[in-house]
Amino acid sequence: MTLFTTIRRGAALGAVVATVASAQLRVVTSTTDLYDIAKAVGGDKVVAAHIGEGYQDPHFIEAKPSFVLQLQRADVWAFVGLDLEIGWMPLLLDGARNPKITLGGSGYLDVSRAMPVIDIPRGAVDRSQGDVHPLGNPHYWLDPENGRRIARLFLSKYSELDPKNATAYAANEKAFEERLGAAEKAWQADLATIKGKPVVAWHTSWRYFAEYTGMNIVAYMEPKPVVPPSPSHLVTVIGAIRRTGAKVIVMEPFYDKKVADFVAKETGATVLILPSSVGGVKGVDDYIALMRSDIAQLAAAVK
Ligand SMILES: [Zn+2]
Question: In a 3-state reduction of DSSP, which class is residue 157?
Fold first, then answer.
C-alpha cells in the first residue's frame, strides 16, 4: 500500500465518521420547555436548540438572523402553536426556506395538535382588541399531563424520522415519564395546600397550571391577554382581591412588577414572581424543576 492510498483510506474513514455524527436529528424548538423535553426524549441521538429564552415573553421574540441559520439545517421544528409564535415564526421560516420544516414537511411539528386546548373563544375573535390567544390558550405546558403528551409527541416524531433509534427514544421517553411521576408524588402535599386558594395572575399563562394545581384565579392583571392593565381595570382587580381574600399576585419575570407592587400595596397581597418557562429564573433548568419550583413557591405563598 502506498502512502497515497493510506491517506485516501484515512480520509474516507473520516467521511464515514462525519456522516454518523450528522445522522443525529437536528431539532429546533421555539421555547425552552419544548427544548428540554425534546432533549429528554432524544438523548444523544438528537442535537437540540431553542429560539426563545425562558426569561423572555414567548409572544414576543426577536427574529434574529442566527435563528434562520439554525432552522436552515433543522430536521424538526417544534413549536407551541395556537398562534403563540405568530409574531416572529413566519419571518424565520420564510428566511430558512427549509422544506422539511415548513407546513406539510416531515419535521413541521405543531405541538398544540396533540393537546387538549382550553379557553377556545366562542364566536368571532377580533385581533384589533388585542386578543393574542385567538385559537385558545397556548400555555399548555404548565400541566404535567401535557408535559407527558409533549414527550410522547417527540417520541413518535423521532421514531418516524429515525426508526433505527426508536428503541432508544422509547426508553428515554419512559424514563422521563418515570421522573415526572416521582416528582408529582413528591409535590402532592403542596398541591393540597394550593387547592382552592384564591390568587391573581398577570396573564392567562397560568390557566393550565390552575387546572392542575386547583389554584383559584379570581382576577387577571391584564384586562385581555397581553393588554397592559389600565387604571380602571386595576380597580376591578383590587376589588376582587378584597372580596376573595387572595393573598398572592402571580406573574412572570418579564412583566412590569411596579404595577403589581401597587396592587399589592393597596391590598396587602404579595407579588410572587414565578417563571412560566425553563430558564425563566436562575436554577430552574429543566421541565420537572420548573413545575416543582413553581408549585413549591406558590404553596409557601398561599399557606
Ligand atoms: Zn399568552
Answer: helix
